[in-house]
Amino acid sequence: MSIAITGATGQLGSRVIQHLLNKHVAADDIIAVVRDKEKASSLVDIGVEVRHGDYDHPDTLENVFAGVDKLFFVSSPYNDDTRRIVQHANVVKAARDAGVKHIVYTSYAFAEESTIALAHVHLATEQAIRTTAIPFTFLRNSLYTEIFVNPALGASVENGAVVTNTGKGRLNTVTRNDLALAAATVLVEDGHENKTYTLVAHKTWSFDTLAQILSDIAGKTIVHKAVSLEEEIEILKKAGLPEHLVFMFSGIYQAISEGEISRTSEDLQKLIGTPTPLEETVKRSLLSEE
Ligand code: NAP
């Protein structure tokens, strides 16, 4: 059984490979598809086959999936959504032409109802995969907890406040590692063909919850200061974030305030058991372990 992983040098793809190995998949049954082979030398060292494939260059994808049974297709991180659809179509066509038997794709949770622009990329990609008639599994991933819980929170601890325009909005985020474990589970088990899983938390949290956890860990009061969208945009600009990130973050925060990221599902728990508690992720990120 040959399993190919795209985005294998990335944070999600590399964790999926680790979980496959933990689940006793032989290293020589894993094919890492990367755009920069030099970054993948540690995979070569452990016996994983590394192939070059770039979503932007269909010629590099022509033979990259030869002999692959299952493909774990990591969505592109590129920030031009229209171009991302083209990149993804290149991958899907190559998988079809190579006769891949099962595509597991990293989609986006509750994509149909989402107001976040990137949801369209994921829906378009799901439809492209359906046109191939290859059995699929769509892993509709939540936003990563690490987008919000990362070492930058150290500054909030120092300042005594987490500032967002999320209001009382709640989040259904999951850590990359839990999503990677769910993906590896789907890749090694039978019976996940033609299924769509909504991989969000079964319990939500808010920035008020996060401020309380930070207060408990730091031993001092840290509040969640709720600001307006306009104020948040100014704060992010002043912090020196590039313009696309200012609009991405303030837009995601706005979606949170409107309750868009608060729906729950049991799908993740069924695949991996209880996901990592928020407290643990916060502690690790403050210690910079993640
Ligand atoms: P990541 O660490 O940025 O990894 C992205 C991977 O895609 C890297 O291996 C990168 O290769 C590869 N890649 C980039 N452009 C490529 C191209 N043209 N052709 C082939 N490979 C290419 O992202 P991640 O954390 O693993 O997340 C996986 C994906 O989830 C992202 O790509 C993005 O679509 C999506 N995402 C989801 C969330 C969420 O909250 N759910 C947040 C951010 C992103 P290099 O190592 O060579 O750069």
From TrEMBL:
Domain of life: Bacteria
Positions of the NmrA-like domain: 3-280
Organism: Domibacillus epiphyticus
Name of the protein described by the UniProt record: NAD(P)-dependent oxidoreductase
CDD domains named among the record's database cross-references: TMR_SDR_a
InterPro entries (alphabetical): NAD(P)-bd_dom_sf, NmrA-like, NmrA-type_oxidoreductase
